[in-house]
Amino acid sequence: MLTEKETTNLSKFLSLVLRHKPEEIGITLDEQGWVPVAELLNKLNAYGNNVTLEALEHVVDTNAKKRFAFSDDKLNIRASQGHSVEVELGYAPQTPPDVLYHGTAASSVESIMQNGLEKRSRQHVHLSIDTDTAVNVGGRHGKPVVLTILTGEMHKEGYKFYLSENKVWLTDEVPPQFISQA
C-alpha cells in the first residue's frame, strides 16, 4: 500500500499528465480525456516509477477531491475536470442551484470584480456548492476569499452549466454583474 506522501505525489503527477501535459510521459488523451489504464501504467513505469493497478485504484478511490475517474469497465482513466488541454468531457448542460461559490486569493478579488471569472488556460471556470470547499480552493494561492455567484440568474440569461463527476460545477465564464463577496 502507498504511504500518504506517495499517494499525494502520484495524485499530483496524475493531475499533470491527465489534465495538462500528457506528452510528459508520451500518452495521448482521447477526445473525452480518457487514456487506457494499461498504457498509463506502462508509461508511468517506463519512467522509473513502480505504479501498480492497485496503487492507481487507491489514488482514484482516496482522492478527497475525486479528481480522477475510471470508465465503467475500469479499462480507461481520466481527470474529472480542470484540463488545460482540449478535451470534450461529454457533460450535459444542467440547471445549477441559484447560488454557487468560487474560492480565490484575496489578491485576485479586485480584478475578478472588475473583469469577472475567466477560464483562461483551463476549459471551464470551477464553482463550488458550499463555502467550505471554496475556502479550501481559495486558500491554495493565499488568503482565501469566497465569492458568491448568482448562477440561477446566469442560467436564466442563457449561460450553460455542467456538473462534473466529482461534483464541481463548470461554466465558461462568470461576468462581474453575477459576482458578490460572500
Can you walk through the features of this model?
The chain is 32% helix and 21% strand. It has helices at residues 4-20, 37-46, 53-62, 109-115, 131-138, 151-156; strands at 35-36, 68-70, 76-79, 93-94, 100-105, 117-118, 125-127, 144-149, 161-163, 169-171, 173-174, 179-181. It has 182 residues and is α+β, with helices and mostly antiparallel strands. It folds into two domains: 4-79, RNA 2'-phosphotransferase, Tpt1/KptA family, N-terminal domain (Arc Repressor Mutant, subunit A, Orthogonal Bundle); 93-181, ADP-ribosylation fold, CATH 3.20.170. The strands form four sheets. It has a four-stranded antiparallel sheet with strand order 4-9-10-7, with no helix packed on it. Strand 9 and strand 10 (169-171) form a beta hairpin. It is built from six helices and twelve strands. Helix 1 (4-20) crosses helix 3 (53-62). Its EC number is 2.7.1.-. GO terms for molecular function: NAD+ poly-ADP-ribosyltransferase activity; tRNA 2'-phosphotransferase activity. Belongs to the KptA/TPT1 family.
Give the helix/strand layout:
Blueprint: H1 4-20, E1 35-36, H2 37-46, H3 53-62, E2 68-70, E3 76-79, E4 93-94, E5 100-105, H4 109-115, E6 117-118, E7 125-127, H5 131-138, E8 144-149, H6 151-156, E9 161-163, E10 169-171, E11 173-174, E12 179-181
Antiparallel strand pairs: 1-3, 2-3, 4-9, 5-8, 6-11, 7-10, 8-12, 9-10
Largest sheet, described in full? 4 strands, antiparallel
Overall SS class: alpha+beta
Query: What is the tally of beta strands?
Result: 12
N- and C-termini, Cα separation:
41 Å
What is the name of the CATH class of the largest domain?
Alpha Beta
Strand residues, percent: 15-25%
Order of helices and strands: HEHHEEEEHEEHEHEEEE
Helix amount: 25-40%
- The total of helices stands at 6
Rg from Cα = 17 Å
EC number: 2.7.1.-
Keywords: NAD, Transferase
GO molecular function: NAD+ poly-ADP-ribosyltransferase activity; tRNA 2'-phosphotransferase activity
Protein name: Probable RNA 2'-phosphotransferase
